[in-house]
Amino acid sequence: MKKVLKNAEGYLYLAPTLLVLGIFVYWPIVSSFQMSLTRVAPFGGTFRYVGAENYQRLWNELITGGEYYNNLKVSLLFTLGTVPTGIFIAVALAIALAYPLRRLSWLHRLLIFVPIVISSAVTGVIFRWMYNPATGYMNHWLGLLGLEPVNWLTSKDWALTAVILAVVWRQLGFNVIIALAGVQNIDSTYYEAAKVDGANLWHRVRHITLPLLSPTLFFLVIINVINSLQTFGEINILTDGGPGQATTNMIYAIFVDAFVGTPFRGYASAQAYLLALLIVLMSIIQFRGFGRKVHYS
Q1: What are the contacts of 34-39 at 24+ separation with CB within 8 A?
Q2: What is the spatial distance between Cα 213 and Cα 192, in angstroms, rounded to a whole number?
């Protein structure tokens, strides 16, 4: 009897948490799936059950190279551009902060970490100003290098790159903090032994730091892939998905179909579920493919 009362008391403590999760997490998930099986009349606002019609439409667009194929391609290219670049820069800065450049002033460290507190909307505004063809710094720096100016936000060839640079900068602070914590957590005796054996800095980084940093790198890859697939703010501020849908990723397409113009909320909900499925699938692939190569010291 005492055990039953103790269990009941435990569930009572969990009740507020379960209530909040039920209202703001589980119920939206269920209702969104129900909506993905419906179509909303444009003018009457009534829901009509259509089964898997929305998913069938997305599949047809995927195999025929339609809009959904473009959105998926942009999302994957965007992820491929942001994740390796952002992690490489973060790890390089973390190693520099931990080893040869320990005497960096507080101002240099602040400039590295400050993007972590800046929202995506603010990042979009900052980079929109920097990409300005007349007064922006990006083209000014290119001119100093003797290069031609670039139409960063109006060229199909450069718009996605422009958004990638903005997102890499915004996520840099978080990535550096995590990478620096991983580097500083490595036992110094490994480096001392390597120095005795005559290993230089590059050998110590390659054979000690990077292998022992693999759990941190694995975590950063998972988090950055998820964040990149859900990037919205910079695209909305910088390009509005253009030019010519060159920067319309899956999450921005969901926003447009659900809230802009004539709403297609059932179609948008189906896209949201497929995006969630893609994130889960990519996470599983990463755990199966790269998780085995992680070295835990």
Answers
A1: 35/265, 35/266, 35/269, 36/266, 36/269, 36/270, 36/272, 36/273, 37/266, 38/266, 39/264, 39/266, 39/267
A2: 17
Indicate the residue type of 191: Y
Residue 260 DSSP label: S
Location of structure tokens 């602070």: 173
Q: Is the peptide bond before 84 cis (omega within 30 degrees of 0)?
A: no
Q: How far apart are CA 11 and CA 23, in angstroms?
A: 17
Quick: pLDDT tens for 103-145.
Answer: 555 666 677 788 888 888 899 999 999 998 888 889 989 888 8
**CA gap 63, 172 in Å, rounded:** 36
Among 7-11, 21-25, 52-56, where is mean pLDDT lowest? 7-11
The CATH superfamily of 65-293 is MetI-like (1.10.3720.10)
Which helix (H) or strand (E) is 38 found in, with range?
strand 38-40
pLDDT at residue 111, as a whole number: 75
Q: What is the DSSP letter of 262?
A: S
Strand partners, 38: 49
d(CA 252, CA 160): 13
- pLDDT tens, residue by residue, 216-251: 999 999 999 999 999 999 999 999 998 989 999 999
CB count in 10 Å sphere of residue 262: 8
Query: Residues 62-76: pLDDT tens digits?
Result: 999 889 999 999 999
Nearest to 59 by CA among 277, 292, 287, 295: 277
